[in-house]
Amino acid sequence: MNTNRYPKGLESIQTPFYYYDTDLLRSTLACIKNFENSNEGYYVHYAIKANANPKLLKIIQEYGLGVDCVSGGEIQASIDAGFDPHKIVFAGVGKSDWEIALGLDHDILCFNVESIPELEVINQIASEKDKQANVCFRINPEVGAHTHTNIATGRAEDKFGISMEDMEKVIRLAESMTNVHFMGLHFHIGSQILDMADFEALCDRVNELQDRLEKENVKLEIINVGGGLGVDYTSPETNSVPNFVDYFSTYRERLKLRKGQTLHFELGRAVVAQCGSLITKTLYVKEGNQRKFVIVDAGMTDLIRPALYQAHHKIVNISSEAETTDTYDVVGPICESSDVFDTDIVLPTTHRGDLIAILSAGAYGETMASQYNCRPFAKGYSTEDFKD
Ligand code: LLP
Question: How far from the centroid of its chain's Cα atoms is residue 158's Cα?
Fold first, then answer.
């Protein structure tokens, strides 16, 4: 193999599969933890929707992060992996009754509530259990995130959250309820955000809303700014750890935390994207009239991001020793014309049997896989599986 990025023995595993570099995951987590520890009141919750592979969860849990969940299944997976339930925050526009009950039974830190009907149901279920549900309201800050439209949120017309206009009304309603305890505000402006100006705009908005609420004598214990920090999909090898320095300093410098307040982050992609590769084998190299296709055994069922968001993941041939190159479209075997990983990319001259790695696939890869075409799920292996 022409790279030292992957361990020996990888070539004998049935493809396609995910390979997770857990050394990189650990150094990414150490970096996050360092920022958390050096900023009083900062708490990072891992957005488990990015990757719920138990091997990764076990490691993330060791670093003491909390979890951001959007379903009962995610709450259960977090608890099974050993995360502290008191560090779980639970968001989502459509929480089912059993999911709310599960959160209450485990005394999670807080429900991020997205509508009045949901608040009423939480109050009801909590009263049946004779419990207090901690709630934050997810407010749409109307701060435009410069990212793909499918992953931008927090605009006035999104299905998520509550408008700024209704903020005081929902808080008053919560305060009048017997079984909910209002704790603060939650925001999330989108995902794969690389421009710190978007996070600055969010900070400005939060400051403005806090000032507004203080005049009404409303105090916030928690401010949760969601996730969204992006990663470098173009040069993942050189930028393997996301820009946490600028990210956390933006919040430290710009957001005016009040005494005793805690600031919560829900990072998903930034934690796990760069440690994962989808490893796939070249089945055929097909020469069309105009284009050459590298047909691989992984498809959109294993990694849907290129098909769904026109995302580009760096693709490398990790077994070729060829000195010549060629231009290819890299495509999967699924019966959908959108099953294309990328077009017009330059690879070493590629042959049947060559191993191809699709990089930065640790976030929203395995978790978004499907079994369309009756395909089995790709397994996940980690660095630890190759250590003697
Ligand atoms: N908090 C909330 C409320 C969210 O909705 C999300 C992501 C996160 C945190 C974590 O965001 P992150 O730090 O990972 O950007 N499947 C898409 C991304 C969807 C993100 C959904 N929400 C993709 O593959 O790009």
Answer: 19
Cα 131 from Cα 46, distance rounded (Å): 26
Residue 148 pLDDT level (bands cut at 50, 70, 90): low
Q: Tell me how far the alpha carbon of residue 352 lies from the centroid of ligand 1, in angstroms.
A: 36
What are the structural domains, with CATH classification, of the chain?
A: 10-17+274-386 (2.40.37.10), 22-272 (3.20.20.10)
d(CA 89, CA 349): 48
pLDDT in tens, 235-290: 999 999 999 999 999 999 999 999 999 999 999 999 999 999 999 999 999 998 99
Q: How far is 203 from 201, CA to CA, in rounded Å?
A: 5
Contact 210, 163 (CB under 8 A): no
What is the pLDDT averaged over residues 124-146?
92
CA angle 31, 37, 154 (to 5 degrees): 75
113 Cβ below 6 A of ligand 1: no
231 Cα–ligand 1 center, Å = 12
